[in-house]
Amino acid sequence: MQALVPRRPMRDARTLVAVARVIAFGALAIGAAMSAAVAAPELAREAAPLTPDAATLRLVVARLPATIELVVAALALAGSIGIAVGFAAGLTPGSRLDRWTATTALVGLAVPTFWAGLMSILVFSVVLGWLPPLGRGATATVLGVASSLFTLDGLHHLLAPAATLALVPAAGIAARVRRATAEARKLDFVGFARAKGVSEARIAFAHVGRYVAGRIVAIMGAQFGALVALAIVVEAVFAWPGTGLLLLDAIADSDAAGIVAYLVVTVPILVAAWLVACALAARLDPRPRRAPRAASRAKRQGLAVGFATTSPPMPDPRRPAPPRAAAARLAAAVLVMLVVAALLAPWIAPPDVSDAGARDLVGAVLSGLRTSFLVALASATLAFAVGTPLGLLAGSIHPAAAAPIVGVVGAQRLLPPLLVALVLVAVFGPGIAAVVLALAGAQWVHFAHAAHAAARSAQHDRYVDAARNLGLSTTRIALRHVLPNALPTLVTLAAVAAARSIVFEATFAFLGVGLPADAPSLGFVIAKAMPAIAQGQYAASIVPGAAIVVAASCFRLVADRPRAA
User: Fold this and answer.
1) Cα 131 from Cα 120, distance rounded (Å)
2) Alpha carbon of 564 to those of 320, 323, 331: distances in Å?
3) Is 242 helix (H, G, I), strand (E, B) or coil?
4) Helix (H) or strand (E) holding 481
5) Number of DSSP helices (H) and strands (E) in the chain, helices first
6) How far apart are alpha carbons 384 and 447 in whole angstroms?
7) What are the backbone angles phi and psi of residue 174, rounded to the nearest 5°?
8) Is the pTM of this model over 0.90?
C-alpha cells in the first residue's frame, strides 16, 4: 500500500533536524552580514557603536508584544479566509468559484498594503465613522505583558490594522491552497478511492484534506514571515506602536544600532516559526516516511513503478485556451499601453509632483508609472542575471562544493523580501539605483532556487547523460541544455519579481525610504494626498493606488499565463 502515494520528502526526523541546523546557521550568517553591512557606513562616518546597547534591545523587546498581537490576529484572519476559499476552489477546478478565487488572489497580491490601509481609514473611519483611524487603544496586562486583545477598545482599534495586514497574505494563502488542493485531486490515490465508490465528501476531507494539511501548515509558516515584514508598513499607516515604527525611525536616522537590534530580535523569531511549521508539516504528512529503494531509483530514472510516480497528462491540442490565458493576453495589451503612456508622460501631461491635486493628477500618475516600470524591469533583470548563473552553477557541480551557495539561498529565503529590501536600502542609501540594487538583492534567491532545482533534476536525464558522454563541458550543458528548459519558469519568476518591485517601490516612497524626495513616484503622490482625505478629496489617493494595482496585476496575470495555458 505504500506505493499508492508519492514518496515522503523528509525521510526521518534526523534529516529534518539536519536541514534545520543548516538553515538556522545560514540565517544567522545572513543576519551577521547584514548587521556588519549596515554598521560599516556608520563606523566610517563617526565611529558609532557597532552593536546595539541594552537600552535599544529593551526598547525593541518592549514594543514586540504590539507587533506579535497584530501579526497573530492577521494570521488567524488570513488563514481562516484563505484556507476556506482556496480549499473550496481547489475542489471544483474550472468552476466559477475557482476562476473568481484565482483572479481575486492575483489582484489581492498586487494591492499595496499602505494603500489598503489608507482606503480602510477612508471608508471605515472618515466616511462611515465605524472604526478609530489610529492608535492601539486600551490595553490590559496579562502575565506581565500589556495586550489590546483583552479590552473592547483595544479590539476596536485592532480590527482595521489586522484586516489590512491580512489582505495580501489571505490572497497568497488562497492561491497556494487552491493549487495544492487541485494537484492533490489529480493524484492516483484519489482516483483509486473514487474507483472504490468512496463519496466525494469523504474524498475531499478524509483524503485530499489530510494530504494537503501539511502543505497548509507550511504555507502558514511562510506567511508568518511575510506578515512580520508587512506589519512594518501597517504600523506606519495606523500609528501602531510596534517594532516596525522603531525600524523605520532607525532607517530614517541612519541608526545602525537600531537596525541591528531589530534584526537581532526579529530574525530568530522568523527562523523559529519556520522550523515549527516544517516540523508540524512533516508530522501531518500522511505519506510513508520511507519508500522502497526500487521505487525511488525508478523515479530518478523516469520509470513508473505501480502508483509511485504520476506523469502529468498531455495537453489536448483540440482543447480551447482557458479563460485565464485570454485574460493574460488582455493584461499584456494593457501593460503595453501603460508603458507607452508612461514613456510619453512629458508630452501627455507635464508632471508636477509637488502638486498632487486633481489639476496635475494625470501627469503625476504617468510620471510615477514611468519610475515604477523602470525600477521593476531593472531590478527583475538584475535579479535574473545574478541568480540564474549561481543556481545553474550550484546545480551542476558537486553538492558539497555547492553547499555555500545553497546555504545562502536557503537562509535568505527564510527572510521576507520586503524586510531584506528595507535593510539593503538602508545600506545603499537614497537613490533610484540604490532601490534597484536593494530589490534585486532581495529577489535574486528565487531565480537561484529555481535554476538550481532545474539543474539538479536534469542531472539524471538522458539528454544530459548523452551530452556528458559526448564530452561537452558542464558550462555548455548548463547553458545549452538545462537553461532553455528552465527558461519558462525563470521568465515567470521575472514577471512576478517585476510586479513585486512595483509595489515595493511605491511602498518605499510612501514610507520616505530609498527614493529621493524629488523623484516622481506614485508612493509620494499618495503620501502627499493624505491631508486631502480629511477634506473630502479622495481622487488624489484613489487614482495612484489603482494605477499601482493595475500595473502589478498585469504583470502577475502575464506571469500566470504559462500555468494557465
Assistant:
1) 9
2) 12, 8, 13
3) coil
4) none
5) 24, 2
6) 6
7) -60, -45
8) no
Q: Which residues of 133-148 are buried (b: 16+ CB within 10 A; e: fewer)?
A: beebbebeeeeeebbb
The answer to whether the CB of 497 falls within 8 A of the CB of 386 is: no
Q: How far is CA 449 from CA 307, 412, 457, in A?
A: 29, 11, 12
As beta bridge partners, residue 142 has 145
Amino acid of residue 41: P
- The residues facing 146 across adjacent strands are 141
Bridge partners of 145?
Answer: 142
Give 147's strand partners: 140
Query: Does an H or E element contain 141, and which?
Result: strand 140-142
Could you say which DSSP state residue 3 is in? G
Quote the DSSP letter at residue 140.
E
**Residues 71, 151: Cα–Cα separation, whole Å:** 18
DSSP code for 521: -
Mean pLDDT per 10-residue segment, the chain (565 residues):
42 46 50 48 44 75 88 91 88 82 84 89 84 80 78 85 90 87 81 77 79 84 88 90 87 83 87 84 68 44 35 40 66 84 72 48 82 91 91 81 82 87 86 90 90 82 70 74 82 90 91 81 83 70 87 85 48
Which amino acid, one-letter code, is at 105? Answer: A
- Indicate the pairing of strand 140-142 with strand 145-147: antiparallel
H or E segment and range at residue 145? strand 145-147
Cell of 429: 542609501
Beta bridge partners of 141: 146
Using alpha carbons only, give the angle 341, 345, 346 rounded to the nearest 5 degrees: 150
